[in-house]
UniProtKB/TrEMBL annotation:
This is Crossover junction endodeoxyribonuclease RuvC. It catalyses: Endonucleolytic cleavage at a junction such as a reciprocal single-stranded crossover between two homologous DNA duplexes (Holliday junction). GO terms for cellular component: cytoplasm; Holliday junction resolvase complex. Keywords: Cytoplasm, DNA damage, DNA recombination, DNA repair, DNA-binding, Endonuclease, Hydrolase, Magnesium, Metal-binding, Nuclease. The keyword DNA repair applies. GO terms for molecular function: crossover junction DNA endonuclease activity; DNA binding; magnesium ion binding. The active site is at D8, E68, D140. It is found in: Cytoplasm. Its EC number is 3.1.21.10. NCBIfam families: ruvC. The RuvA-RuvB-RuvC complex processes Holliday junction (HJ) DNA during genetic recombination and DNA repair. Endonuclease that resolves HJ intermediates. Cleaves cruciform DNA by making single-stranded nicks across the HJ at symmetrical positions within the homologous arms, yielding a 5'-phosphate and a 3'-hydroxyl group; requires a central core of homology in the junction. The consensus cleavage sequence is 5'-(A/T)TT(C/G)-3'. Cleavage occurs on the 3'-side of the TT dinucleotide at the point of strand exchange.
C-alpha cells in the first residue's frame, strides 16, 4: 500500500487527509478542508467537492481512497445532502481509477482511538499522536486522516489474515 486519501464528506465542509503507508509506518502527507459557500445551491457545492478532490488526486497521486459511510443524521434532508456529497467524492475517486473503501464512523473511531464512542477531540489527539504532527488538525481534516488510518489498519489486518494458514482454538496460527 502507498498513499491513501481519506475523505470526511459534508455538504458545507469536506475534510481530506493523505497518509503514506511505507514499511509498516504511516507518514502524514497533507490534509485540509474543502469549504463550500452556504449561499451556493447544492449542485454547485457538489461540483466544488468533485473538482477539488480531482485536483487533490491529480496532485498527490494516491493509490487508494477511503470514505466514511452514511450515518443517520438528525433529519432526512441532512442525510440526503450527506449522501450526495459522498457520491460526488466517490465519483471523483472512481473516475481516477482509485479503489474505494467505506467505513462506519464507529469503526474509524475504534481503529484510531480504541473506542467507537470517542469524541472529536479524542480523534484529533490520536491522529496528531499517530502521525507525529506538531499541531492539532482541524476537526474535519482529523476525521479524514482517521479514515485513511482506519483503511490502512484494515488492509494490513486483511493481509495478515490472508497470510495465516489455519485457525487453532479461535486464533490464527
Amino acid at each position: 500500500m502507498a498513499i491513501v486519501l481519506g475523505v470526511d464528506p459534508g455538504s458545507l465542509k469536506t475534510g481530506f487527509g493523505l497518509v503514506n503507508h511505507v514499511s509498516g509506518r504511516c507518514e502524514y502527507i497533507a490534509s485540509g478542508v474543502i469549504r463550500m459557500k452556504s449561499s451556493d445551491e447544492l449542485p454547485e457545492r457538489l461540483k466544488t467537492i468533485f473538482e477539488s478532490l480531482v485536483e487533490i488526486i491529480e496532485r498527490y497521486q494516491p493509490s487508494e481512497f477511503a470514505i466514511e459511510k452514511v450515518f443517520m443524521a438528525k433529519s432526512a434532508g441532512s442525510a440526503l445532502k450527506l449522501g450526495q456529497a459522498r457520491g460526488a467524492a466517490i465519483v471523483a475517486a472512481v473516475t481516477n481509477g482509485l479503489p474505494v473503501g467505506e467505513y462506519e464512523a464507529r469503526k474509524v473511531k475504534q481503529s484510531v482511538v480504541g473506542s467507537g464512542a470517542a469524541d472529536k477531540s479524542q480523534v484529533q489527539h490520536m491522529v496528531r499522536t499517530l502521525l507525529h504532527l506538531t499541531a492539532t488538525p482541524q476537526e474535519d481534516a482529523a476525521d479524514a486522516l482517521a479514515i485513511a488510518l482506519c483503511h490502512i489498519n484494515t488492509q494490513a489486518s486483511l493481509i495478515r489474515l490472508a497470510g495465516s494458514r489455519q485457525f487453532r482454538r479461535g486464533r490464527l496460527v
